[in-house]
Amino acid sequence: MAQLLDGRSLAKVVNAETKQRVAALTDRHITPGIAVIMVGDDPASMIYTRNKEKKARQLGIKSVLKHYPIEIDQASLMNEIAALNNDDSIDAIMIQKPLPKQLNETELIDAIDPAKDADGFHPLNVGKLFDNQTGPYPVSCTPRGIMRILRHYQIPLSGARAVVIGRSILVGKPIAALLTNADATVTLTNRHTKDLKKLTREADILVVAAGITHLIDQADVKPGATVIDVGMHRLDNGKLTGDVDFDDVEPVAGHITPVPGGVGPMTIASLMAQTVDLAEWRRNG
Ligand code: ADP
What PANTHER family does the database record attribute to this sequence (predicted)? Predict the structure, then answer.
């Protein structure tokens, strides 16, 4: 029986810390502010965005939704980002995906002030992460949440063999960098990887972010391994599940994140904590 890595409970701890840090800033007459840029009316994005706004408000963070019509052009959105960069009440800026095809996402992310980069996607911040600079600088929120889980449950990282499935800039690449910086030996895999399951069976730490329902089952996991499931899928019966077949893997794993209640709640808690980091860094100069 694995020990459950309870992201829901840990997120409450992180959010309580964030709330206290916001109160300390408010005492100095500073209210941390996050701006969420959303283009069009994608229903999933609307839900995510609303959840972020609600959480921000609960913690005392000012949240501004910048909602633009689906047909907005690149130049107009670049101007909007420039305005947010110059707005002293805004500490953190994030762009909600997906974006319509006429927009150049790379150029938009590059335009965000790296000191207001809520998601840690700006190339300057990504570069600092890969350079293992001491910081401070923001990092992608899902990997940040995963590292907090690993630290909280005292999972040994130095010398551990870690396998990461999926190489997105959102999850796979930054978690590989963070684990490498923490002295783990990391194998970063993708859809072309040969003998993937041979690699996963050797992992002390297995991070699964491929976006494939139940890609990993018991036979793919080394007994006692720590299994981190970043996937989120809705089954036909309405239940949520991950990239890992939890019921199958849980008896052999040492530690495992559930879906829901694992990585998900830590991602939004990390975004809020990072917003307050950015406010502190910028205001403390
Ligand atoms: P996420 O946002 O969770 O990282 P994405 O959908 O952006 O997910 O990316 C999925 C990643 O998973 C890609 O990097 C892709 O190469 C990788 N991937 C997809 N299928 C497999 C597979 N069978 N084995 C290993 N990696 C895979």
Answer: C-1-TETRAHYDROFOLATE SYNTHASE, CYTOPLASMIC, C-1-TETRAHYDROFOLATE SYNTHASE, CYTOPLASMIC-RELATED
**Does the CB atom of residue 190 touch ligand 1 within 6 A?**
yes
- Packing angle, helices 172-181 and 123-130, rounded to 10: 40
Is 101 marked active-site? no
Per-residue pLDDT tens for 33-82?
999 999 999 999 999 999 999 999 999 999 999 999 999 999 999 999 99
Active site residue 52: yes
Residue closest via CA to ligand 1's atom 10 equals 210
Residue 80 belongs to some domain of the structure = yes
Q: Are 156 and 259 in a shared domain?
A: yes
Is 3 an active-site residue?
no
Residue 151 assigned as binding residue: no
82 and 168, same domain (yes or no): no
Domain limits at 54?
29-113
ipTM of the predicted structure? 0.88
